[in-house]
């Protein structure tokens, strides 16, 4: 999650944050990746960029959700968007096909280090049941 959360930096996870309602766009969440081969005790931090039933495209010019270009919030000025076309073959690997419709009760998440993050671009949207809580910087 660098540059937002640096390696070794401590964070707090609010495990009750989503007991009533799901995550909001731009929030950082702690989750168990939906990768069959990953150990069940692995927890990663990712940022929510698309909500259930939204249609997302990652284009050369930015993030498009339901036909509207999303602007990054000012507090994320340190995060640099990287379109799928600019990823090298090793960075890109196998990506989901865009436009992508987020299934019900799922969230599209990415790491803030767009060029080095294994996230929804690779494994698709994450089920709400995989999301453990909201991350708070200390």
Radius of gyration: 14 Å
- CATH hierarchy class name: Mainly Beta
- Could you give a short account of the major beta sheet? 6 strands, antiparallel
Multimeric status of the protein: single chain
Helix content: under 10%
Query: Could you tell me the number of beta strands?
Result: 10
How would you describe this protein?
With 138 residues, this protein is mainly beta. It has one domain (11-137): Ribbon (Umud Fragment, subunit A). 6% of the residues lie in helices and 29% in strands. A hairpin with a 2-residue loop joins strand 5 and strand 6.
Give a quick set of tags describing it.
Umud Fragment, subunit A; mainly beta
Short description:
The protein is mainly beta and 138 residues long. The chain has helices at 89-92, 120-123; strands at 11-14, 28-31, 44-50, 55-58, 63-65, 68-69, 100-101, 106-110, 126-127, 131-137.
Helices and strands in order:
Blueprint: E1 11-14, E2 28-31, E3 44-50, E4 55-58, E5 63-65, E6 68-69, H1 89-92, E7 100-101, E8 106-110, H2 120-123, E9 126-127, E10 131-137
Antiparallel strand pairs: 1-10, 2-3, 2-10, 3-8, 4-5, 4-7, 5-6, 8-9
